UniProtKB/TrEMBL annotation:
The keyword Lyase appears for this protein: yes
Residues covered by region (Disordered): 45-72
Protein name, entry field: anthranilate synthase
Amino-acid biosynthesis listed as a keyword: no
Gene Ontology terms, MF aspect: anthranilate synthase activity
Reaction(s) this enzyme catalyzes, per UniProt: chorismate + L-glutamine = anthranilate + pyruvate + L-glutamate + H(+)
InterPro entries: ADC_synthase (IPR005801), Anth_synth_I-like (IPR019999), Chorismate_C (IPR015890), Class_I_gatase-like (IPR029062), GATASE (IPR017926), TrpG/PapA_dom (IPR006221)
Keyword field: Glutamine amidotransferase, Lyase
All residue ranges annotated as the Glutamine amidotransferase domain in the record: 466-643
EC id: 4.1.3.27
Domain Chorismate-utilising enzyme C-terminal: 139-401
Originating species: Catellatospora bangladeshensis
CDD domains listed in its UniProt record: GATase1_Anthranilate_Synthase
């Protein structure tokens, strides 16, 4: 294929991209003009179709293709955007600013080459590459992991964080030919990849990689996200019953289950912003790759937003950052002393369908080599640090995540295909299917079923609520649940709280941090909200951090747990009934008994026997919950919220002063 030979061998082919999307039997070739823009809203999305050049099927204009069950956009490509991690600053989030630009390739020429022809034209020999090792050695990375576990997760900064290091190499070969050979190896050597790609920019910078994960896509108003977490190595699968038992243990492992649930919650927060009624959860599924199997969910919802706004509101994937997202950005900036370039950003293909509607297909930019014109190579890899992480385990994870791309560059030997059980055969086993689906048995049905607009009845219909957001966008999910109960909901950050008296209910919402640290502006703001509502006997609900601030105002002692309850579902006694609820906390209030006399009336406490740790409390016109009723981990969240809010509003209905 002369086109590929020219792109990889001509002196100056201009910017181009080669894309092989999941399941496609062709390679897409995009060429055009490159521009640098400052904001995602400035990404060009032309009305016209790319060029008049003949496509692989001989037509003069490339027709739209049909979406498949995975939700791939039905569009003609208009723009390919490389969104760097530093774009976080557009949302006001912290990041190490390395100056990496937001580059946009406006597509002027588009071809589809049959995959077998493309593979025959790509270089089949990888040039010499010299391994320079990781920029942070294993010992130093172990120390870094231990510090994040102790000083961040252990102090309530969040439930998980992704900290990266960089595998370095160099070559004297032409970067495009090296990238072309690596692309060929990635296409032929790995299955289950969402996008395999090569992007060449003016000046010689070249990216090549294989991203397993869709971040977000939009097609015909359907927005989808695809959180992936959990890894099973196929080499651990023995032949016969042993392989089946290993897979069943993996699917039942609480650490693996909870990690995926945490990521699911974090992406539901994003869907709460970009989808009209939030996201519906589909799955879980097994995602089979050549040497690994992951677990994943799909999230789907309807949106009327411009696709560039969808991109902005979903910056960036929690699987590459952490949770809650804004504080994760701060933690990453504290521990990573070099910029991420494009790692953790997205490669976004924007287009239009046959009717002119906007489409988007955006994989996460990771599992990728970034090659400079001078032959310097960087392969960034990060470990997801959670409460159960170990430094040795996370060191091994970064080696494994960098391994695929390093193998494609000739720096690692590809592992032999496992002689054990075939994962695809095991996946069809009835016991495996039952165990996988059992993950949903105690999740919230609110997020697992499609929600259509329908008349709502009940005592909460038409009542107004203000949710004060202390930098945890769980508040978006909470807003959707309260709206489903008929309430009219406003969400405001702690930095811009309006008059509280205009609302029937005020929710002091969740956020990261130490609830006793009044120098933290979020904690101080929540303290003001709690004081104002309690002093006027006005209806108040505290959730997580807001509940801790309320508890402290009521005179309860606060305690930092020895083991954080981050992303942890638990069965707890709530005022005489057992409920499965989801915790995302490091701190807890402690109560000496189940009934407390306070300046604001008698308070009933749901607490853990022995420790006195408070799960929830309620008094005349106020209540607080340490867990997240809106979380997918809380089995009957809408019902719990209905009961709590109705109980809070009842004193006001009976004539208690609210003004």
């Amino acid at each position: 294929m002369n086109l590929l030979h020219d792109l990889l061998g001509a002196p100056d082919p201009g910017p181009f991209a080669l894309l092989r999307r999941e399941g496609a039997e062709h390679l897409e070739v995009l060429r055009g003009s490159l521009s640098t823009v400052a904001r995602l809203a400035d990404i060009p999305l032309p009305e016209h179709a790319p060029g008049d050049e003949a496509s692989a099927d001989g037509s003069s204009r490339q027709p739209a293709w049909t979406a498949d069950r995975r939700g791939l956009p039905t569009s003609v490509p208009r723009t390919l955007a490389l969104v760097p991690y530093r774009q976080f600053a557009e949302r006001g989030f912290a990041c190490v600013d390395d100056g990496t630009p937001l580059e946009c390739l406006t597509v002027e020429s588009y071809h589809r080459i049959p995959l077998d022809e493309a593979l025959a034209a790509l270089p089949d020999t990888v040039p010499d590459v010299t391994d320079l090792g990781f920029d942070i050695d294993d010992a130093a990375y172990r120390e870094l992991v231990a510090a994040v576990l102790r000083d961040e997760i252990g102090q309530g900064a969040g439930s998980n964080f992704v900290i990266h290091r960089t595998a370095r190499a160099r070559t004297d070969a032409d970067p495009r030919r090296l990238a072309g050979a690596a692309l060929r190896r990635l296409i032929t050597g790995e299955r289950g990849v969402y996008w395999t790609f090569l992007v060449h920019l003016p000046g010689g910078r070249t990216l090549v990689g294989a991203s397993p994960e869709r971040h977000v896509s939009v097609d015909d108003g359907l927005v989808m996200m695809n959180p992936i977490s959990g890894t099973l190595r196929h080499r651990d699968l023995a032949p016969g019953p042993g392989g089946r038992d290993t897979l069943l243990r993996f699917l039942s492992d609480r650490k693996e289950v909870n990690e995926l649930s945490m990521v699911l919650d974090e992406e539901l927060k994003m869907m709460a912003v970009v989808a009209d009624r939030g996201g519906q959860v589909l799955g879980p599924y097994l995602k089979h790759m050549t040497h690994l199997t992951h677990t994943e969910y799909l999230l789907a919802g309807r949106t009327g937003l411009d696709v560039r706004e969808v991109l902005r509101e979903t910056m960036f994937a929690p699987t590459l950052t952490g949770s809650p997202i804004e504080n994760a950005a701060r933690v990453i900036a504290r521990y990573e002393h070099s910029g991420r370039a494009y790692y953790g950003g997205v490669l976004a293909l924007l287009g239009r369908d046959a009717d002119g509607g906007q489409t988007l297909d955006a994989p996460i930019l990771f599992r990728c080599a970034d090659i400079t014109p001078g032959g310097e190579i960087a392969v960034k890899a990060g470990a997801t640090l959670v409460r159960d992480s170990t430094p040795d385990g996370e060191v091994a994870e970064t080696h494994a995540k960098a391994g695929g791309v390093l193998t494609a560059l000739g720096l690692r030997t590809a592992p032999a295909v496992s002689p054990g059980a075939d994962i695809r055969d095991l996946a069809a086993d009835p016991a495996v299917r039952v165990t996988l689906l059992a993950r949903n048995e105690r999740l919230s049905r609110f997020w697992l079923t499609e929600r259509e607009p329908e008349p709502v009845t009940g005592a909460l219909v038409g009542r107004t609520a203000l949710i004060v957001d202390a930098e945890d966008t769980f508040t978006g999910m909470l807003g959707h649940v309260l709206r489903s109960l008929g309430m009219r909901v406003t969400v405001q950050p702690t930095t811009a709280i309006g008059p509280l008296s205009a609302y029937d209910l005020v929710v002091a919402g969740p956020g990261p941090g130490d609830p006793a640290d009044e120098t933290d502006p979020r904690v101080a703001a929540l303290g003001g909200v709690v004081e104002e509502r309690l002093s006027r006997r006005a209806p108040l609900l505290g959730v997580c951090l807001g509940h801790q601030v309320l508890s402290r105002r009521l005179g309860l002692r606060l305690h930092r747990r020895d083991v954080p309850y981050q992303g942890l579902p638990c069965d707890v006694d709530l005022f005489g009934a057992t409920h499965r609820v989801g915790f995302y906390s490091t701190f807890t209030a402690v109560a000496p008994g189940r009934l407390l006399a306070t300046a604001y009336g008698d308070v009933e406490v749901a607490r853990e026997d022995g420790t006195g740790f408070v799960h929830a409390l309620r008094g005349p016109g106020f209540a607080g919950v340490q867990f997240h009723p809106e979380s997918v981990l809380t089995e009957h969240g809408p019902r719990l919220l209905t009961e709590l809010v109705a109980g809070i509003l009842a004193p006001a209905e009976a004539g208690s002063p609210v003004a």
